Amino acid sequence: MPELVFPLDSTKKFTEQEILGHNRWHYAIPPAVTVKPGDTFRVHCREWFDGAIVNDDSAEDILNAPLKTVHTLSGPFAVEGAQPGDLLIVDIVDVGPIPQEDSGPLAGQGWGYTGIFAKQNGGSFLTDQFPDAYKAVWDFQGHTATSRHIPHVSFTGMIHPGLMGTAPSKELLGKWNAREAALIATDPERVPPLALPPEPEHALLGSLTGDAFTAAAAEAARTAPPRENGGNQDIKNLTRGTRVFYPVFVDGANLSVGDLHFSQGDGEITFCGGIEMGGFIDLHVDLIKGGMETYGVSENAIFLPGGDVGPRYEKFLAFSGTSVTLDGEQRYLDSQLAYQRACLHAIDYLTKFGYSPEQAYLLLGAAPIEGRFSGVVDIPNSCATVYIPTSIFDFDVEPGKDGPVQIDPGIGAPRASA
């Protein structure tokens, strides 16, 4: 086993650990650990809400999820010799849940969860159709996930970090804050908001203290969106065997990682999506000196996704959508709208077998569905598609002359009371 450089005690909160992580992006956050090019090391990661979501049949915890506390990131990890303009090579050697036998009640120890966020608390990709909070708990048996809240389904997890990235420079952080503030100003009262501005409350900045902490907390960027440094990209294919080339903006690169998922559908469409869990990740790091200029990488990472692990599905049932609203309004090549319509198409279809719309939506967020922008040039309609592996169901999910099989939907997905 690689050296464990960032241990977490599962019986303690993230803020009570001997080694402190962070939940904001800022150039002044000191490295928690320094590693060398060529090192392989293990990191513990906490589930993104640090235990606020529990294994029960209620969704009140999803409704009241403390968004100002996320994401609980492990790091930063400084890499000796890394300088702005380099490319940081990060190999995902291994990743998995916290072993079941370890102490503590936190998600990742044999179970994880998927949640639909209430519109008032951030919403989701389909928040207008699903404005309330719902939850599904998933049990892990080896590499397989099943749920009492969405029965008749099991699938192999493609375990991956939802969030990994390098620290921004002072200049890059300023660019983020300026452009996101300008977006918010176009509709400041929107629910859910257009973006999340810096928020000092509940900010965690590693070992930073005093006036330096106060100054950094006032401008540190929230970790919710992906940006030029990588960040919360939620790419399900970044599993074991993946190599990532991250741009370096500060001395040491200051790599951070977290938001582990046992599985996820393309798009993480429920927002509290995938199957959230705590766990471990083994990383190998190296450098390409001056790599950003050499390879024309001014921003944003390049990936070699892991191709030799994870589920292998051969048969899919695919659903399409176009850029026309539910009210019949034509939009011009709106690929996001087309993907929403494809997802709603799939949800409507699955309800014919006995699932509730919420169960079907949670399934699309958790199972390894494939989402594709299939046509983006044929004016005025873009076309997006959602591919669902047929073998994840224990019944025949294909259309047939005898009509859809009627399954027992079980206890259903818990819904929050408000």
UniProtKB/TrEMBL annotation:
One of its GO terms (molecular function) is formamidase activity. Pfam families: FmdA_AmdA (PF03069). Its EC number is 3.5.1.49. Coiled coil: none annotated. Keywords: Hydrolase. The keyword DNA damage does not apply. This is Formamidase. The lineage of its organism: Bacteria, Bacillati, Actinomycetota, Actinomycetes, Mycobacteriales.
